[in-house]
Amino acid sequence: MDRIKLHIEPNTCNRDETTCSCCAADMFVEKPPFWKRRKLITGGAAGLLMVAALIINVFTSLDIAAQFMYVIVVAVAGKEILLKAFRSALKRRLDMNCLMSLAAFGAFFIGHGEEGAAVIFLFFIAESLEEYAADKAKQSISQLLSLAPETAKVKRGGGEIEMHTHEINVGDIIVIRPGEKVPLDAKVVNGHSYVNEAPITGESVPAEKAGGDRVYAGTLNEEGYLEAEVTKKADDTVLSRIVKLVEEAERKKSKTEKFIDKFARIYTPAVISLAFAAFLIPTFILGLPWDVWLYRALVLLVISCPCALAISTPVAMVSAITCAARHGVLIKGATFIEELSKIKAFAFDKTGTLTKGRLEVTDIIGLNGNSPESVLAIAASLESRSGHPIAKAILNKAAGEGTNPKEITSFKSIQGKGLRAEINGTVYYAGAKNLFDELSIKVPDELSRFESEGKTSILISNEDAGVGIIALGDKIRDKTPATISDLKKLHIRTEMLTGDNKEVAAALAKMTGVDEYYAELLPEDKVIVVEKLARRFGSVAMVGDGVNDAPSLAAANVGIAMGTAGSDVAIETADIALMHDDLSKIDYLIHLSKKTMRIVKQNIMVSIIIKGSLTVLAIPGFINLWIAVGIGDMGLSLAVILNAIRLTRVRD
Description:
alpha+beta; Calcium-transporting ATPase, cytoplasmic transduction domain A; Rossmann fold; 4 domains; six-stranded antiparallel sheet; 22 strands
């Protein structure tokens, strides 16, 4: 994929949203690998010069040579810092580049050239660390960008030609051989294979693909030969949309980030004012030595740099968002990570969320001496000519059991009641209870039991008596009970919302373990319930399919859509989109959000405590510029960065 196409150009960026309010560093623009950057060479050269100058200064009497080398260190490491400071001064805006430049020049002025050079050199390292942190946090997105191949083999005129993906149009037929990556979103028209969709869905088990199934750009064809019809242009694939949406999400600030920005805007001028006061009052009012108090004021200027505090939250949020993307979870902004950590109740749509969203045979009972196998064979034979979802479920069950439908004659569909047909001269019926009331055939007690369990029951009979019963239900997902149980352990309330009747809802609520259920709801009723839960618990998340449940997802504090890999609407509208139908990702999300906010709070507290402590120690002269910039700026930045990057390793 053309990486440049996916870059967000500078003229499209909202600078207020993307730059550090303190040092004007863009946290989210993708850059070349750290080891390739000019900054690494610059830093290495400046570091060698700094060490050489210190050796000369300490072990020789060539003080002028050492001071000259310190100036070169400032020129090499501080070129961009000084230019930024000059531009900021012209705009009458005092940023961190200005503060560090003032501190460095002040140090040279009072004869502390080594400390002036150290201020610039260590601040240069701190800025480089910030860039490295942004790159490390965005590593998942860089990997996503390189997943889809740049070219694809297209069928043209009885042969194949290789074309760039941006030249391929919707409707073209592409060829994907074993071991090749899928170049574009497409629909399989020929072939059979298993495709590893982990980059999109986070699901490690390869998905089976045959005629009519969708494949996505960036996924890996593991086994068979596939021909597929392109459904999306290169810039509009699911992979491209994920990358773009995640990049946009990384630029959206959470409440905590906005608060820290406001705090930094107050903190910085306050400490700068304190620095000026620390110089002016002792010197001009108390008559104390001006050089001593100028030095202490310079130390306070360096301490006033709130870069570590400013990056403490965004680095953590970016790490969390990109880590989630790598696990098949698309989070649309830092706000939703923060909000998710405060959720007190989860509302789940039933069909397609807690359940698989399709009917499956759950029970087969033979009556009057008939075996379950024979009941299934008769039912499959009768249903073989029906297009009803029940028929599909029974035929799928028969295929799975290796049962082949028998030849039938005199087939008749009895509208709203059931089916009639002859098998080897014997008349059989399959249908609901009302059909057999008319036929004067006794309805077995088991039928009522299945109905009380919320299952759909089909009675199979001949003209004299019942042959058997087949019960069908919307099967709950394998991970549903465990997910509900884990949420309860976190003291999070679980509620089920469904349009089904109360009997079905009650039976499913018992099997899944949800705390409460709401049945027979229309879409607008679900919105009312979600709003009611929000008033009751303060913060509620809604989990649904992202399309039918759109109103209730929007009403919740956090709307989570499931299985949205093929749904453009869900990807665009949901606050959080689970690309695969895996309910266990809910537990992963809660764990990720709580850990993210824990790290954010740790970073903020450490930044404030260390900055505050250094400020108190700087006034009486207990610390120097080396400590101020080495610990208060570079060291603190490194600490919060390393702490935040731990989030890139959170597993589901």
